[in-house]
Amino acid sequence: MFQFSNSLFHMKEAFKAVENKDFSELERKVMFEKATELPFTGEYYDFFEEGIYVCKNCGLPLYRSQDKFHSGCGWPSFDDEVPGAVLRQPDKDGVRTELVCGYCGAHLGHVFTGEGFTKKDTRHCVNSVSLKFLPKGQKPEKEQIFFAAGCFWGVEHLFKQCEGVLDTQVGFMGGHTDHPTYEEVCTGTTGHAETVRVVYDTKVDVENLIKYFFEIHDFTQVNRQGPDWGKQYRSVIFYTSEEQKQKAEKIKALLSQKYKVATSIEKASTFWPAEDYHQDHYDKTGKTPYCHYRRAIFGKDIPISLD
Ligand SMILES: [Zn+2]
């Protein structure tokens, strides 16, 4: 049985996969035991159709065809990831930087910089067997978006009750330090915001999740949410796709006709999961959030039709 060395990740998806999914020997070895497929053998090393690549284990989008390039190395090469999709961590060899799916922890490959292949000067060298290609026009079954709206305990608690939400996780995003701890973020010096990862079923329009986000916190407060003061409590939508960005901007513009909206809309960066004891906080304690509740603002004061 494989073991994950890094307790940072919640690996329930990966573990479920090993128990339940019908993966080939090679897929298991690469995704869960960090093996590497032989060069020039994978399905996608010489493949340049338009579309996106999702994680073969959990199904979340990882890479886009517009970031794929010919490197000649024998594995699929990308010079960028879907925002917030991957985690970089030191390889056991002490030299390279390993790439894993930021959500499920499946091993993807390695990332190299300074080789000069493209303007971004970055090469994600990814195993084909860790990926599944979806041609342009085919929607992934699930996607993720990240919301910061004050204390993440309450935000997570409310998103768990939202239609279409498949999973949530609390953590940190938007700052300048790696592997931040809760204590470090509380000092307000890391730049990170308390953030909730929301994995959702794409049968649900992400616009509904964005509206819900605005309804469960006071988006007019700057660097504050109720009793919690500090930049770590700021209001942010961290998008992972162009669709999410456009819908977030549309709704913010609509609300701005009536309110002074403090929420910023930013491209997702690395999501750092918070310590285990912060996950599902209100489920564990049986308490209810002290600072978050839902109030209906769409469809009443504001017309719901946005077209
Ligand atoms: Zn994954």
Give a brief rundown of this model.
The protein has helices at residues 12-20, 25-33, 152-159, 182-186, 206-215, 242-256, 281-285; strands at 51-55, 61-64, 68-69, 77-78, 86-90, 97-101, 107-113, 122-126, 131-135, 142-149, 165-173, 193-201, 224-225, 228-229, 235-239, 264-267, 272-273.
Number of strands: 17
CATH homologous group name of the largest domain: Peptide methionine sulphoxide reductase MsrA
Gross CATH architecture of the largest domain: 2-Layer Sandwich
The unreliable regions are 1-9, 301-307
What amount of the residues lies in strands?
25-35%
Secondary-structure class: alpha+beta
User: In total, how many domains does the architecture comprise?
Assistant: 2
The SSE string, one letter per element, is HHEEEEEEEEEEHEHEHEEEHEEH
Task: Supply the number of helical segments.
Answer: 7
CATH class of the largest domain: Alpha Beta
CATH fold name of the largest domain = Peptide Methionine Sulfoxide Reductase, Chain A
Radius of gyration: 20 Å
Distance between the termini: 53 Å
* Oligomeric assembly: single chain
Mean pLDDT score, rounded? 90
Order of the strands making up the biggest sheet = 3-4-8-7-6-5
Keywords:
disordered C terminus, six-stranded antiparallel sheet, 2 domains, 7 helices, disordered N terminus, Metal Binding Protein, Guanine Nucleotide Exchange Factor, Chain A, alpha+beta, binds zinc ion, single chain
Notes on the protein architecture:
- A hairpin with a 5-residue loop joins strand 1 and strand 2.
- Helix 5 packs across helix 6 (242-256).
- This protein is 20% helix and 26% strand.
- The protein folds into two domains: 12-135, Metal Binding Protein, Guanine Nucleotide Exchange Factor, Chain A; 142-285, 2-Layer Sandwich (Peptide Methionine Sulfoxide Reductase, Chain A).
- It has helices at 12-20, 25-33, 152-159, 182-186, 206-215, 242-256, 281-285, and strands at residues 51-55, 61-64, 68-69, 77-78, 86-90, 97-101, 107-113, 122-126, 131-135, 142-149, 165-173, 193-201, 224-225, 228-229, 235-239, 264-267, 272-273.
- The strands form four sheets. A six-stranded antiparallel β-sheet has the order 3-4-8-7-6-5. The chain has a six-stranded mixed β-sheet with strand order 16-15-10-12-11-17, with helices on one face. A three-stranded antiparallel β-sheet has the order 2-1-9, with no helix packed on it.
- The N and C termini lie far apart (53 Å).
- It is an alpha+beta fold and 307 residues long.
- It has seven helices and 17 strands.
- The radius of gyration is 20 Å and the shape is globular.
- The chain binds zinc ion.
- Keywords: Multifunctional enzyme, Oxidoreductase.
- One of its GO terms (molecular function) is peptide-methionine (S)-S-oxide reductase activity.
- InterPro entries: Met_Sox_Rdtase_MsrA_dom, Met_Sox_Rdtase_MsrA_sf, Met_Sox_Rdtase_MsrB_dom, MsrA_MetSO_reductase, Mss4-like_sf.
